Amino acid sequence: GRRSRSPGAALSPSGDRFAVIESDKDGRTVYVRQTADGKVIRALRFGTAKLRGLTWAGDDHLLIINTATMKLSEPGARKHEWEGVIHLDLRGNTPPAMLLAKSNTYVDAIFGWYGAAQVGGHWYAYVGAVPLAVTQEWSRSAIFAELYRINLEDGKVELVAHSTERDRSWLVRL
Question: What is the pTM of this model?
Answer without folding.
Answer: 0.84
